[in-house]
Specification:
Blueprint: H1 23-45, H2 53-61, H3 69-100, H4 113-128, H5 133-155, H6 164-188, H7 190-200, H8 209-236, H9 240-245, H10 250-272, H11 278-290, H12 294-318, H13 327-350
Amino acid sequence: MTAQAPAPPSAPPRTPPRHLTGRGRLVGLLVGAAILALACVASLAIGTETVSLPTVWQALTDYRDVGDQWIVHDLRIPRTVLALLVGLALGLSGTLIQAVGRNPLADSEILGINSGAALFVVCAITFLGLTGIWTYIWFAFAGALFAMVLVYLVGMTGRATVTPVRVLLAGVAVGAVMDGIGFAVRLRNPRAFDNMRFWDAGALDERSLEVAGAIAPFIVVGAVLCLIVARSLNVTALGDDLAKSMGGNVARTQAISLVAVTLLAGAATAGAGPIGFVGLMVPHAVRRLTGPDWRWILAYACVFAPALLLAADIAGRVVIRPSELPAGIVTAFIGAPVLIWLIRKRGADRS
């Protein structure tokens, strides 16, 4: 009688992650709000020239154009307000894309949505001579919607099953094509290229409060739409068939989310240029705290996404003083390794 070979030792069971619950989620949200407030103060004080906190306070409460107060009043307040709005828009749009598309590797930059908005703005400035944000912002919305629809049409072609990876690859391809066309248009028209240079790399400087005021209404409407669909996102994330069996209106949720992402991504790109990875990193980071409840993920994204963008902007100001790195480049340095880690992690989970 032959001896039976011992069975290989089984892998130890994975310990499920522990998430905040109940009052802990609210405390975490308040901590995030405090971090955001500190980031705003740092954004007003830190830069190529550091301004003291008393001077910052005087510029905010009793501006008299004395000393360095003009730096805070004229340069950093508009920059900080724009970062708050753009960060909010990118965080909410990325969360919606991941929830409705059930694609944890997506955000508006990776799927080419920001590239579509930027391309349409470039064409509006080059061929129509539109230079004011109140005129070309509508082209940003049209470009974001066009790119979003095109990506999902490309991802659904062929007989293979539509998967998050197929949609991701389609977004990267469509975004690359639109970026190439945009660069070609700018190189053929140097004047339009000069007009686009200030936001071409996703920079937040050289903006007036008029820019923030122009995009703010659309971001507010997009945020309200997020509130409308927040409750139904948890059901929609379970899949179309299961969501319908539970009484969820999948078509309504997807339609409202489409409008919200168009407004949020289009307004953010029109105001600050194409800034990527904020909408990818923040939902993944806060999900470790909130768990899979999309209502809390949206709430946390409202504070942590602007804080991340402000931190990236501050880092860009000081890392190569006296010059600056645009915030979009800093977020790319951080976000690209995060995307690689997420892809490798998903592959390991499936093996």
